[in-house]
């Protein structure tokens, strides 16, 4: 049984924002401080990603654990009222997220999902530094092309092995 009246519940649900949420702002401020430049909620891409870094061909989705059904997270709990509705709604959200990320991947975009629970104070710094590391690795991987002759490819030794002389 819901403890709020229908009007109170309606007002609560209507107040929930779809953009510029606190978790989004945490990620955006961190990226800006680190020198990453981005666009917000790009209407040209499937799913209107929360953050788009064109230089890195990367889209970042900052997902709320409840709304996107973060499995195994303590913040994703199915409400006790209207259970069938909420299970179906979250399942639709998850399917939509999967479909949009597949479309972006086919278009050549990298997709990163940052969960709300990973931005809580005790995990925030590790999550954000991991995000910056991943973006730098994506940039280096996409920009770095090494050419090796077939002789070089077959003649490589592991760093821990001494070279064998004939």
From TrEMBL:
Pfam families assigned to the protein according to its UniProt record, in alphabetical order: Vsr
Record carries keyword DNA damage: yes
Keywords: DNA damage, DNA repair, Endonuclease, Hydrolase, Nuclease
GO biological process annotation, one example: mismatch repair
Residues of the signal peptide: none
Gene Ontology molecular functions: endonuclease activity; hydrolase activity
Top-level taxon: Bacteria
UniProt EC number: 3.1.-.-
NCBIfam families: vsr
Family per record: Belongs to the Vsr family.
Name of this chain's protein: DNA mismatch endonuclease Vsr
């Amino acid at each position: 049984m819901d403890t709020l009246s229908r009007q109170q519940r309606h007002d609560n649900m209507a107040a929930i924002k779809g953009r510029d949420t606190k978790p989004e702002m945490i990620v955006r401020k961190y990226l800006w401080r680190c020198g990453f430049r981005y666009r917000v909620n790009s209407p040209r891409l499937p799913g209107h990603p929360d953050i788009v870094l064109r230089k890195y061909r990367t889209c970042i989705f900052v997902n709320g654990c409840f709304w996107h059904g973060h499995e195994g997270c303590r913040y994703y709990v199915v409400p006790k009222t209207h259970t069938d509705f909420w299970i179906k709604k979250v399942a639709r959200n998850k399917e939509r997220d999967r479909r949009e990320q597949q479309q972006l991947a086919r278009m050549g975009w990298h997709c990163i999902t940052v969960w709300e629970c990973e931005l809580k104070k005790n995990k925030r710094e590790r999550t954000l530094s991991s995000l910056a590391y991943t973006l730098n690795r994506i940039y280096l991987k996409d920009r770095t092309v090494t050419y090796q002759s077939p002789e070089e490819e077959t003649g490589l030794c592991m760093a821990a092995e001494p070279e064998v002389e004939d």
